[in-house]
Structures are given as C-alpha cells and as structure tokens.
Amino acid sequence: REPYASDLQGLDYIRKARAERAQQYFSANANIWADIRSLYVPEQDVESVLLKRAEAGAGDKLLDVGTGTARMLELFAPHVSEGLGLDISPEMLGAARDNLSREGFAHIQFRRGDMYEMDLEAASQTIVLYHQVLHYAEDPARAIAEGARVLAAKGRFIIADFAPHKEESLRLEHAHRRLGFHDWELEAWAATSGLKPLSTDVLGGGQLTVKVWTFEKLDSPAVVPLPNRQTSSKNEVA
C-alpha cells in the first residue's frame, strides 16, 4: 500500500530519535573515545595497514570522516599536505582540536559536518577515510556515495570497520547501527559510487575482527560493474 503521512512522520521520528541517541553517546564519550576503540583490536595494527594502503605523500589531501578525537589525522599529518577532520559532534571536535593543538599541525583543520551532506567541492580530496564510523550510519550506502563524490579520480577510499558479528551490546550500549559489514555489500555500495576494490585486510586478535577495505575512484565511474549479490545486509539492526 502507499505510505500514509502518519507512517512517514513516524519513520522520521524514529530516525531523529536514533540520531539524537547517537549524538548523546558521542557527547558523553568524547573524552574516552580512544579507550572505547581499544577494546576491539590493537590500534597499532590497524594504523599500520591504513598507512600502507593510503600510500599518502606530498600533495595529498586527506578527509577523515567522523574524526572523533583525531587520531587518524595525527597519524597521517606527517604524510599529507592537508588534512580535514569532519564530525557531527561539537564535543568530539573539541577533543580533536585539543589533541592536535599540542602537535602544532598547522595544515590540519576541523569542521562540523554531516557524512551525508559534506560542504565540500566534488573531487577535492585525494584520500577519504572512514575509520570505525560507518557502523553508526543509518544509511551506509549514502555515506559512501557522498565520500566518493568529494574524492578525486585515482584517489583512495578507505574503510576500517568490523566484520559481521553478533555483539548486540555494541548496538544497545554504544549506539552502533550495523553489526559489521560483509565484503560484498561494501563492494556493491562502492561500485554504484564509482569505486573499484583494491584490497581487503583482515585483522583479528581482539573481541571483534576488523577489516580494512581499500577502493580507488575511477575516471569513468559508469564502467564499474555491480557485484552479483543482493545488497541488503542480514546484519542490519532495526
């Protein structure tokens, strides 16, 4: 049947409530974000892979989406000419600025922004990074599409996140919207955004398995074939 206005209003209310709960979570945990992340997998292992896959060098412009406490920008700062941290939470941005102000990185900036509607020019970045942020997204496909929009041709698009898991506590206590991602669903979303897969790294040793998916922006996005799989994820939470 066609959706009634009340149905749409109800759905909008649910989405806003979820967003508000996530915002409250980020605000409450801004100062202990690094400790929360460290529960999952040794960060030094992930960081080593990220540096390797990004192949960052002079002239590169890095966009860190959902920058949190800006650890990724701190990691990449010596390797890029410009870095921009984007986050929806003022508390997270405050913590990020405090952390990097001690390092004196003048080429690193921060901005409050939405992963679905970044106020950035198309093809303006050479590296786009989603580090442990996509599982908070209500619409991961849309977030990937927006990241791809601002990525220049031949640029690297890197996602570090969890493999599929059943840890419901992350949804209930830590505002996760997705309990990990399958390779095929990320590849499908990436393909529709003009990205081709380059590599997938698997990192275990913690409570959960972390994966690093690396994609490249094509010159002619229309030639990207879709993976022959369904694109809905069974690990999506309601």
Helix/strand order, N-terminal first: HHHEHEHEEHEHHEE
- Determine the N-to-C terminus distance: 21 Å
Structural class: alpha/beta
* Mean pLDDT across residues: 81
- Enumerate how many helices there are, as a single number: 8
Q: Characterize the biggest β-sheet.
A: 7 strands, mixed
Give the CA-based shape. Answer: globular
Strand percent estimate? 15-25%
- How are strands sequenced across the largest beta sheet? 3-2-1-4-5-7-6
- Spatial extent as radius of gyration: 17 Å
Portion in helices: 25-40%
Low-confidence stretches: 14-19, 223-238
In total, the number of strands is 7
Explain what this protein looks like in three dimensions.
- The structure is a single chain.
- By secondary structure, the protein is of the alpha/beta class.
- The protein is 37% helix and 22% strand.
- It contains eight helices and seven strands, in the order αααβαβαββαβααββ.
- It has a seven-stranded mixed sheet, sandwiched between helices.
- The two termini are 21 Å apart.
Element layout with pairings:
Layout: H1 5-29, H2 33-37, H3 43-54, E1 61-65, H4 71-76, E2 82-87, H5 90-101, E3 108-112, E4 125-131, H6 140-149, E5 151-162, H7 168-174, H8 183-192, E6 195-203, E7 210-217
Parallel strand pairs: 1-2, 1-4, 2-3, 4-5
Antiparallel strand pairs: 5-7, 6-7
